[in-house]
Amino acid sequence: MESGLAQLLLEHSPDPLLLLASDGSISFLNAAAEDLFGYSRAQLLGTHSSLLLAEDSREPFRGAVAALAPAAPRSRRPFTGAGRRADGTEVPVEITCSLLPDGGNGPGAAARPVALSVRAGHRQDTPAGNGPGGTAADAAAPRRRNLSSPAPAAFAEPDDALRAGVLRDPLTALPNGTLFNERLAAALRRPDPVDVLLLNLDDFKNLNDMLGRSAADEMLVEVASRLRNCVRPHDTVARLGGDEFVVLLTECLNAEAVAKRIAESLYEPLRVGGSLVRPGISMGLASRTPQTLDGAELLRQADAAMTAAKTGGKNTWLRFRQEMLGTAAAKADGRAGLRQAVELGQISVHYQPVVSPGLGAVVQFEAFARWERHGRLVPPNQFLPVAEQSGLIREIGDEVMRRACAEIRPWLAGDAGYSVAVNVSGLQFQNRDFATDVLAIVASTGVDPRQLMLELTESVFFESDLDVLRQLRQLREAGVRIAMDDFGTGYASLGRLKGLPLDKVKIDRSFVAMIKTGQEQLPFFDTMINAAHSLGLRVTAEGIETAAQASYLMDRGCDSLQGYLFAKPAPASELAGTMESALTAIDKVEAGR
Ligand code: C2E
Ligand code: MG
Ligand code: MG
Predict the structure, then answer these.
(1) Counting beta carbons within 10 angstroms of the beta carbon of residue 62, is it exposed (0 to 12), middle (13 to 18) or buried (19 or more)?
(2) How far is the centre of ligand 1, averaged over its atoms, from the C-alpha of 368 (Å)?
(3) Which site from 120, 214, 366, 457 is most exposed, i.e. has the minimal number of CB atoms within 10 Å?
């Protein structure tokens, strides 16, 4: 059959059809599948197929696919389970799976693509849960939901009231605050351990503003699903409203391990509104002690820990400590200490080389602020938020710029191919003369402005109340180059890069961390790199820790790389050694290809 005709047939088939790549990600779906699951094609392509299944059905489905073999490429009986739609509702599905001929990915079923033909509803003659991975428990489980009554029931709850939706958050189908409080109170009446983990998404407002309400909703649904996957069935995950979630762990012996699992699970970027984003989360953990009075107190403690996590740099979690309740005093202490550090010159700068594999050379040094306090180095994510809240960021930013230019100048003067990159906080642009001040520092230290690059996170470009763009244009006219840092972690889409005063994007470490073996299919890297190149931008990938990650990105045309594989940040006095280590690492990567 002509391939165009085959394509037409697949596309217009009344049956929902999908094609899964060997890693389980969706590589094709037709219009009927879009209709059934309520997602658009752009939302699903490249996403893992488990998104379309209710939690309980994911493992059995994986078993059904794993049971396919080249000798018996089609499942004898369809897999039956519960599908999950974009709105969180479940739908009973029967899925016939067929192993396709080897796509050139090597031998074995695991390396082959799989075609899925989906049917909504269960046939009368097909007992529930009979997929090859299905268990007796599946078969015995009552199937309460069907297509005609899609009560939001993404997460199975036995409660009658829940089924009626009264105690559920309508968007995510999670229990709401009322039900959470009831369960917390009930748990506290028993003698077992009780832990509460309060979570808040960082910069959620930005997501709403940039990608729109429906994308924001999509993200909340996905976050809900990931949270549910991190806990045991009898734990409660609830949405308290907005971007706030709470987890109740009962009889849990290691709540910190759960917090860590959640942090890792949400670190993995997710696809919303056609873009990949990584939501930052701040979490606070509080555990019942013999002194705990009631649920309200536990929640207050979790809230204090969460607030401390947020002000301590976001995207992290902290366990409650008594002194967090006196954070005002602690903050004032931190501020005074930082002010003194600035005055005493205790803010120093470390540098990390950026390498260009194409040139086989180091091309740039990125400057990172460090606070030398009581003989130890405080990392920037611990003191920069305090600096931003107290206004000290302007002085610290100036100091880092001045030091970076002065300390790297000997290298810059010796080779026009080198440049120095300095991170800049959006708040520095509140100073309307920021650009002029930067150019004055550059001039006074004798650095060629073309050898300076400023790194800004993506939200700064879209802060409409600051005159960032005017200042960036002024800087670029003088030769300074501009990079968008941590690309992908905020909510800027590739489309929004067009027309910005920009020279480079830096792909965030969380994306690079998705490259584990180097054999993965991660098409967004090609999309990101090609789109950036088509706009005339350079691309650097950050956080390269393995040769596999370096090779993967080199193969995709990434212009430069940075990460511990090449060198960790170090003081200027150690730069020669740092560069040597970076060059040795490039050679090793090249030799291994
Ligand atoms: P960034 O600019 O995206 O810098 C990358 C961070 O990742 C740095 O952390 C760097 O030390 C670390 N890193 C580099 N390679 C690897 C790797 O292979 N693996 C891992 N796990 N980490 C790696 P650092 O120095 O703690 O800085 C964190 C953030 O603080 C920076 O992120 C930047 O946004 C901000 N920052 C640092 N210095 C300054 C500054 O002088 N001014 C401003 N405004 N922000 C700064
Ligand atoms: Mg940076
Ligand atoms: Mg970065």
Answers:
(1) middle
(2) 6
(3) 214
454 DSSP β-pair partners: 422, 482
Q: Quote the pLDDT of residue 70.
A: 81
How high is the pLDDT of residue 223? 94
**For ligand 1, is residue 379 a contact (CB within 6 Å)?**
yes
Mean pLDDT of 212-241: 90
Cα pseudo-dihedral 185, 189, 195, 196, rounded to 10? 10
The helix (run of H) or strand (run of E) holding residue 84 is strand 79-84
Gap between the Cα atoms of 184 and 172, Å rounded: 20
CA separation, residue 536 to residues 330, 354, 361, 532, 557 (Å): 47, 20, 22, 6, 13
**CA-wise closest residue to 365 among 409, 434, 314, 420:** 420
Residue whose entry in the numeric block shows the structure tokens 């600051």: 466
Q: Whose CA is nearest to atom 19 of ligand 1?
A: 543
- Is any ligand 1 atom within 6 A of the Cβ of residue 352? yes
Q: What are phi and psi of 369, to 5 degrees?
A: -70, 145
Phi, psi dihedrals of residue 586, rounded to the nearest 5°: -60, -45
Total count of residues recorded for the chain: 593
E strand or H helix that includes residue 482:
strand 481-487
CA distances from 406 to 181, 194, 297, 323, 420 (A): 57, 54, 52, 41, 11
Is the beta carbon of 202 within 6 A of some atom in ligand 1? no
Domain made up of 352-369+391-592: CATH architecture: Alpha-Beta Barrel (3.20)
Q: Give the residue, 485 or 489, on which the prediction is more confident.
A: 485
Token readout for 454 is 């400023």
Tokens 């690492």 identify what position?
Answer: 585
Q: Which candidate, 18, 10, 16, 131, places its Cα nearest to that of 65?
A: 131
Rounded Cα–Cα distance for residues 510 and 277 (Å)? 10
The CATH code of the domain at 177-320 is 3.30.70.270
**Within a 13 Å sphere around the CA of 154, how many CA atoms are in the beta-carbon half?**
28
- The answer to whether the CB of 68 falls within 8 A of the CB of 78 is no
Place of tokens 């489309």: 495
Domain ranges of the chain: 3-166, 177-320, 352-369+391-592
User: Can you list the alpha helix ranges (DSSP code H) found in 190-271?
Assistant: 204-211, 213-230, 255-267
Give dist(CA 282, CA 435) in Å, integer: 33
Kindly indicate the confidence band of residue 69, based on its pLDDT and cuts at 50, 70 and 90: confident
What residues contact 44, with CB distance under 8 A and at least 6 apart?
Answer: 26, 29, 34, 37, 51, 52
By the CB criterion, residues less than 5 angstroms from ion ligand 2 are 423, 455, 485
Q: Are 239 and 176 contacting, i.e. CB atoms less than 8 angstroms apart?
A: yes
pLDDT digits (tens, 9 = 90+) for 144-200: 222 223 333 333 344 444 444 568 888 988 998 888 988 899 899 888 899 999 999
Whole-model pTM: value is 0.64
Identify the CA nearest to 455 among candidates 424, 500, 480: 424
Q: Is the CB of 382 under 6 A from ligand 1?
A: no
From the list 373, 437, 360, the residue with the least C-alpha distance to 401 is: 437
